[in-house]
Design a protein that fits this description.
Layout lengths: L2 H14 L1 E4 L5 H16 L14 E4 L4 H7 L2 H9 L6 E2 L2 E7 L6 E4 L17 E7 L10 E3 L40 E3 L6 E5 L4 E3 L8 E9 L14 H4 L19
Antiparallel strand pairs: 1-9, 2-4, 3-11, 4-11, 5-10, 6-9, 6-11, 7-8, 7-10
Length: 261
């Protein structure tokens, strides 16, 4: 990745809440990840509350060598270093998210749990998900959808959503007009197998339903960085972050509060 491309990708991540890096996985490694993902998915029950995500299978790198290899995948680490995001560290595992043939859409949600913490106003990325796509992913088979900029700016939809996953999202009706709305600012992100989507935990995202006849699988891993100002940052540092007590404890919540304006 050239310096100009790296800067472009980082700026897009900062401004829009996501960027895409193509061809990050080799074909041989893709095959290994597909085989292991299929083996794990086929070996277990899929509970009803997984229906919107497709699956929610958490796999630690310490338990599966192929996942450990992905955590330490050098081309991805090189891309992060080029983008000056090398201080992001993996949480130690990946989630297999595999939407079966005919699986419904995933509802609009964001995954940041720290909305009571002043670090929530950070104009730089703090908490990212890495999605490695194991097959070509399209509008037909369930590509990611993002509403750009919603990690930094509140929109009316955010105040109408049920909190994600176990906090309520598991149980919403499939015809919920807000959770599954076709928002006018939404962007679809079809990608080729082997691509990496890096996105903000704070940004509103969803996924289309899978209308194809095969499962659509991706591997999602969470990454975070120290709660400090990044070395590359030359913009304004919000006053609430400058005054933030680094030793304070904040009650976790998925509901955006005063720090999303």
């Amino acid at each position: 990745m050239t310096p100009d491309v790296a800067l472009q990708k980082r700026n897009q991540l900062i401004q829009d809440g996501y960027c895409v890096i193509d061809d990050i996985l080799t074909e041989d490694f893709l095959d290994d990840l597909r085989r292991e993902s299929d083996r794990l998915l086929d070996s277990m029950e899929h509970p009803p509350h997984w229906k919107y995500q497709g699956s929610d299978l958490h796999v630690r790198g310490s338990d599966e060598p192929v996942i450990d290899r992905l955590i330490h995948w050098e081309p991805a680490r090189d891309a992060l270093e080029a983008m000056e995001l090398g201080d992001f560290k993996s949480h130690g595992g990946f989630i297999i998210l595999s939407k079966p043939a005919g699986g419904p859409p995933l509802y609009w949600h964001q995954d940041w749990m720290g909305w009571n913490d002043p670090i929530s106003v950070a104009p730089w990325p703090q908490y990212l998900f890495f999605s490695y796509y194991l097959i070509d992913t399209t509008l037909e088979n369930g590509c990611l959808r993002i509403i750009p900029g919603t990690h930094l700016k509140r929109i009316p939809l955010q105040d109408r959503l049920v909190p994600a996953h176990a906090q309520g999202g598991y149980y919403v009706a499939e015809d919920d007009p807000d959770m599954f709305c076709d928002h006018p600012d939404a962007v679809d992100l079809p990608v080729k197998a082997g691509s990496l989507v890096i996105a903000e935990g704070r940004v509103l995202h969803a996924a289309r339903g899978n209308q194809s006849n095969q499962r659509r699988t991706l591997l999602l891993g969470w990454h975070s960085r120290p709660q400090t100002v990044p070395a590359y940052w030359t913009g304004e540092v919000p006053e609430v972050i400058r005054r933030r007590d680094p030793n304070a404890k904040y009650e976790p919540t998925r509901v955006p509060g005063e720090y999303l304006v």
